[in-house]
C-alpha cells in the first residue's frame, strides 16, 4: 500500500527526501528541503490563517444556524438549504483545530478512527457546498419559472426542503465513502512519524489519478455545469419576461433572494475553482516543486477553507431578515 496524505499540512523536516502534496488534493511531487526559511514561514503562517478561518467560520455559521432555528419568520425553503449549508461548514470548522494541531506537531497523535472521521469531514466539505448550492439554484429556477407563468408552487414547502436536504446529505456521504475506506494512519518512511492520509493500493499513480478525476467530475464538473445551465435558462426567462408587457415581474423579495443565491454561488466558485483547476494541472503537467509552487498550493487550500466562513457575512449584507435577526440575537434584553 502506498500512502498519500491529503488532509494535514505538515511541513517536511530539513534534509528529508519526501513527497510534497497539496492538502485536500493528494498531489505528490518530489521535494528536496533546500528552502528552510520558506518552510518555517509556512509553519508559522498556516496555523494563524487556519485559526482565523476556524474562529470566524464557527462563530458565523453557528449564528446562522441559531437564527434560522429560533426566528419563526426565517423558516423558508431557501433558508432550509442555507441552514444545511451552514451545518456542513460548521462541522468542518469544528474539526479544523485538529488539523492545526497535527500541523504544529508534525505527526498524527489522534488514532485511526478520528483520522477516518477528519478525512471524511474534509472531503465532505469539498462536495457539500456545491451540492447544496446546486439545489438552491434549481429552487431559484423553479421560482422564476413559476413567476413567469403566474403559477403557484404547492409542492415547494418547508417540509419538502427538509427531505431534499436529507437526500443531499445521503448523496454526499455515499460519494465520500471511498475516501473514508482508504483513510488511515500510517508511518512515514522518511521520518518514522505517524501520519493521517489516504493509503492507496498499487498502482498508486493510477489510483491517484482516478481519485482526482472522481473529485473533479462529481465535485465540480457536473454540479457547476448544472448550475450554469440553470442560470442561463433563468436569465433567458427573465429577459423574455421583460420583453412581454403582460408578464408579471418578479417581486422585490424574490429578486433579493435570487441575487443572494447567485452571489453566494459566485463566492463559492471563486474559492473552489482554483482547487479544481489545480487538479487539471496535476493531471496534465509535471511541474517542478519550487517555494512559489508550494506557497501557491497552500494558498489554494486556504482559499477553499475560507469559503466555510464567508457565507454568514453574505447573508448579513444581502438579506434584511437575516440582518434584523442577527441584531435581535445580539441584543441583551432583561428577563
TrEMBL record:
It comes from the Eukaryota. GO terms for molecular function: G protein-coupled receptor activity; neuropeptide binding; neuropeptide receptor activity. Keywords: Cell membrane, Disulfide bond, G-protein coupled receptor, Glycoprotein, Membrane, Neuropeptide, Receptor, Transducer, Transmembrane, Transmembrane helix. One of its GO terms (cellular component) is plasma membrane. Residues 60-315 form the G-protein coupled receptors family 1 profile domain. GO terms for biological process: neuropeptide signaling pathway. Pfam families: 7tm_1. It is found in: Cell membrane. The chain crosses the membrane at residues 48-69, 81-100, 126-148, 160-185, 213-236, 257-275, 295-318. It is a multi-pass membrane protein. Belongs to the G-protein coupled receptor 1 family. PANTHER family: NEUROPEPTIDES B_W RECEPTOR TYPE 2, NEUROPEPTIDES RECEPTOR. This is Neuropeptides B and W receptor 2. The gene is NPBWR2.
Amino acid at each position: 500500500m502506498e500512502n498519500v496524505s491529503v488532509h494535514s499540512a505538515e511541513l517536511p523536516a530539513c534534509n528529508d527526501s519526501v513527497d510534497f502534496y497539496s492538502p485536500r488534493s493528494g498531489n505528490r511531487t518530489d521535494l528536496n528541503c533546500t528552502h528552510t526559511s520558506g518552510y518555517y514561514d509556512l509553519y508559522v503562517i498556516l496555523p494563524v490563517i487556519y485559526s482565523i478561518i476556524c474562529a470566524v467560520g464557527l462563530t458565523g455559521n453557528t449564528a446562522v444556524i441559531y437564527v434560522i432555528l429560533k426566528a419563526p419568520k426565517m423558516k423558508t425553503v431557501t433558508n432550509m438549504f442555507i441552514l444545511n449549508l451552514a451545518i456542513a461548514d460548521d462541522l468542518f470548522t469544528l474539526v479544523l483545530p485538529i488539523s492545526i494541531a497535527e500541523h504544529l506537531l508534525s505527526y498524527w497523535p489522534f488514532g485511526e478512527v478520528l483520522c477516518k472521521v477528519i478525512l471524511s469531514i474534509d472531503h465532505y466539505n469539498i462536495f457539500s457546498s456545491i451540492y447544496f448550492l446546486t439545489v438552491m439554484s434549481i429552487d431559484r429556477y423553479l421560482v422564476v419559472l413559476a413567476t413567469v407563468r403566474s403559477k403557484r408552487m404547492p409542492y415547494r414547502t418547508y417540509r419538502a426542503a427538509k427531505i431534499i436536504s436529507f437526500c443531499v446529505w445521503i448523496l454526499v456521504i455515499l460519494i465520500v465513502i471511498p475516501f473514508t475506506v482508504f483513510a488511515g494512519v500510517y508511518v512515514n518512511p522518511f521520518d518514522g512519524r505517524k501520519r493521517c492520509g489516504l493509503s492507496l493500493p498499487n498502482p498508486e499513480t493510477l489510483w491517484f489519478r482516478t481519485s482526482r478525476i472522481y473529485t473533479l467530475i462529481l465535485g465540480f464538473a457536473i454540479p457547476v455545469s448544472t448550475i450554469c445551465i440553470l442560470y442561463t435558462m433563468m436569465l433567458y426567462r427573465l429577459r423574455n419576461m421583460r420583453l412581454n408587457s403582460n408578464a408579471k415581474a418578479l417581486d422585490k423579495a424574490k429578486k433579493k433572494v435570487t441575487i443572494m443565491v447567485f452571489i453566494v454561488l459566485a463566492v463559492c466558485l471563486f474559492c473552489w475553482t482554483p482547487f479544481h483547476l489545480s487538479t487539471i494541472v496535476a493531471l496534465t503537467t509535471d511541474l517542478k516543486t519550487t517555494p512559489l509552487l508550494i506557497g501557491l498550493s497552500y494558498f489554494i487550500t486556504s482559499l477553499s477553507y475560507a469559503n466555510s466562513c464567508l457565507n454568514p457575512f453574505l447573508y448579513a449584507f444581502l438579506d434584511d431578515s437575516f440582518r434584523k435577526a442577527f441584531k435581535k440575537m445580539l441584543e441583551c434584553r432583561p428577563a
